[in-house]
Amino acid sequence: MQHAVGSPLPPPHQPGHGPAVGWSPAAHQPGPPQGPAPVPPPPPPAPGYPTAPLRAPAPHPGPAPGQGPQPHAAPGQGAQQPSAAPRQAPGPQQPPVAPSAPSAPPVPETTGHVPLPPGGPVAVPSVPPATAAPDPTTTTLAVLLIGPAGAGKTSVAKYWADHRRVPTAHISLDDVREWVRSGFADPQTGWNEHSEAQYRLARRTCGFSARNFLANGISCILDDAVFPDRPVVGLGGWKRHVGPGLLPVVLLPGLDIVLERNAERSGNRRLTDEEVARIHGRMAGWYGSGLPIIDNSQLDVPETAYLLDEVLSRSIASPPNW
Fold first, then answer.
1. Who contacts 217 (Cβ-Cβ below 8 Å, separation ≥6)?
2. Confidence band (pLDDT; 50, 70, 90) for 230?
3. Three-state SS string across the chain, please?
4. How many other β-carbons are positioned within 10 Å of the β-carbon of residue 261?
5. What pLDDT is stored for residue 38 in this prediction?
6. pLDDT over 50 at 166, yes or no
7. N- or C-end of the chain: fewer Cβ atoms within 10 A?
8. Are 162 and 232 in contact (CB under 8 A)?
9. Mean local confidence (pLDDT), 207-213
10. Is residue 133 pLDDT above 70, yes or no?
């Protein structure tokens, strides 16, 4: 028997059983309509039949930027669900593809390129009027150390450059001349046009190097056996290569000291005693030339370098005429 109105009666309670399954008195009270009943989970598959794994439904996209919230469905109407895509058999999962980054600007081929100022002739250093003598250890200078073979030019020049308080380069004429390997013209085997050309080329290369160093604030000291009786090749050539601001200083120890130091040399830098005596005799022409001369016969290298600073201080204050 059914009632015309009202909700159905609950099933009868049988002795020995618990309360009716799925019965809730609150569900049959009058009130607002409830949502759809929850869907029970699917039964487990029968053994022996493979099944495809279930995938979580894609989240519903929210409102686009700049739009308001979507309107709710009217009462009594369910939300419209998009049609489900056909289920496909599982396959190998592909790794997610990362979005491509924007291409970087092309890198120039040159790395560490620093523009350098062009090297020009070195002018005479200008010293402001002052009561104290200028300090040659903190001034950018271009020095030419002159002397015969065995005078100690290379040793003094290296020590002086190493112990200055400002950057200083030592440019040795013999080292630059010996860059020539094949076809090297050794003056010991005889002075000819080839050895003369290589010396001229080495002097010009040293002058270019000195001008480049000085243009970038680095002092230079060069050493060469310049003869006073050949001004065009000697001081005149160095003035053309470096500039009028070059400060020449002569190292001229006694002949016995020069012969002793020359005997300690080896290779093509060691000359015969006759050649050393001849060069030393020609160097004596610097006396009376107006150039500063240092007799380092009884001085070691540090003492000679200290005396060189004093001579340069006087040369800066009153440059010699040469």
1. 140, 167
2. confident
3. CCCCCCCCCCCCCCCCCCCCCCCCHHHHCCCCCCCCCCCCCCCCCCCCCCCCCCCCCCCCCCCCCCCCCCCCCCCCCCCCCCCCCCCCCCCCCCCCCCCCCCCCCCCCCCCCCCCCCCCCCCCCCCCCCCCCCCCHHHCCCEEEEECCCCCCHHHHHHHHHHCCCCCEEEEEHHHHHCCCCCCCCCHHHCCCHHHHHHHHHHHHHHHHHHHHHHHCCCEEEEEECCCCCCCCCCHHHHHHHCCCCCEEEEECCCHHHHHHHHHCCCHHHCCCHHHHHHHHHHHHHHCCCCCCEECCCCCCHHHHHHHHHHHHHHHHHCCCCC
4. 17
5. 59
6. yes
7. N
8. no
9. 94
10. no
Q: How many residues are listed for the chain in this entry?
A: 322
The most confident of the ranges 85-94, 204-213, 272-281 is: 204-213
Sign of torsion over alpha carbons 312, 314, 316, 319: negative
> d(Cα 236, Cα 23) in Å, to the nearest integer?
122
Q: Strand order in 247-251's β-sheet?
A: 168-172, 219-224, 142-146, 247-251, 293-294
The answer to whether 192 and 179 have CB atoms below 8 angstroms apart is no
Structural domains in the chain, sorted by start = 136-316 (3.40.50.300)
Q: Give Dmax over CA atoms of the chain in angstroms.
A: 150
Asked if the model's pLDDT at residue 318 lies above 50, the reply is yes
Q: How far apart are CA 149 and CA 154, in angstroms?
A: 10
Residue 26 reports pLDDT greater than 50? no
- Residue-level pLDDT at 27: 45
C-alpha triplet 133, 136, 139: angle, nearest 5°: 115
Instruction: List b or e across 227-236, with b for residues whose CB sees 16 or more CB atoms inside 10 angstroms.
Output: bbeeeeebbe
